[in-house]
UniProtKB/TrEMBL annotation:
This is dUTPase. CDD domains: NTP-PPase_dUTPase. Pfam families: dUTPase_2 (PF08761). Coiled coil: none annotated. It comes from Alkalicoccus saliphilus. Gene3D superfamilies: Type II deoxyuridine triphosphatase.
Length: 196
């Protein structure tokens, strides 16, 4: 049974939202993903050399790190916290958590030699409801588990697509994500230089 079939209802909601978001991206600028994967590969190589590890040796650690970062992101979004009156964290904090996860997801793609060709940039966003966000996080958890178990191109592509779709559900444009990624990428180099 594929990841899709195991949680069809959640996946269907994400799939419909993904199609609405990507439809709006068609009016935007085509952004080549190769550049992001190259930047991540450079950072990964820098870290691997500094820490004396190979990408393959730390693949499971990267998968766990992605799961943890996704959990930290959900914690800042607070969409599942029905028991609390406190709203979500500041949009900048949420975006930073999102790109933390993106760093690990790109790194996993590099290790598995999986790279989506491009993502079209959106000009508008359609932020999801709290329920849609919660279901998106749950589906991402399922897809990441499948990626851990299968380590296939298809499992990676589904996980990547769900994560990119999540940015739109959270109300961010692809330009927001790219700008935040660039900033965090530089910060990650600085952290390594300072023995983080």
């Amino acid at each position: 049974m594929s990841c899709k079939e195991s949680s069809l209802v959640c996946y269907d909601i994400i799939e419909r939202k993904f199609h609405r978001i990507t439809k709006s991206w068609k009016a935007g600028i085509k952004v080549t993903m190769e550049k992001l994967f190259q930047k991540q590969r450079q950072l990964d190589t820098y870290i691997e050399e500094k820490r004396n590890v190979t990408a393959e040796e730390v693949l499971e650690e990267k998968l766990l790190a992605f799961i943890v970062e996704t959990g930290e992101l959900a914690n800042e979004v607070r969409c599942f916290k029905f028991w609390s009156s406190k709203g979500p964290s500041d949009k900048a904090v949420i975006l930073e958590e999102y790109v933390d996860g993106l760093h690990f997801l790109l790194s996993i793609g590099n290790t598995l030699s999986e790279k989506p060709e491009f993502v079209q940039s959106e000009n508008t966003t359609e932020e999801g409801t709290e329920k849609e966000k919660t279901k998106a996080f749950l589906e991402l958890t399922n897809l990441t588990s499948a990626l851990y178990n299968e380590k296939t191109g298809n499992a990676y592509q589904e996980t990547f697509r769900a994560y990119i779709s999540l940015a739109g559900l959270l109300g961010y444009t692809w330009e927001d994500v790219l700008e935040a990624y660039e900033s965090k990428n530089q910060e990650n180099y600085s952290r390594q230089d300072n023995n983080y």
